[in-house]
Amino acid sequence: MQDRTYFLLKRLHSLAGVVPLAGFVVFHLYENSHSVAGQAAFNETVASIRSQPYLYFLELGLLTPLLFHAVMGIWLARAAKYNLGNYPTTRNFAYTLQRASGVVLLFFIAFHLYTTRFAGIPSDQMFQHLAGEFGHPLLAGFYVLGILSAAYHLSNGLWGFAVSWGLLSGQKSMDLAWKACMGLGLAVALMGLNALAGFEGKGLDWFQHDKTQASAAAPVQAQPQPQPTAPPQSQPLPTP
Question: Is residue 86 scored above 90 in pLDDT?
Answer without folding.
Answer: no
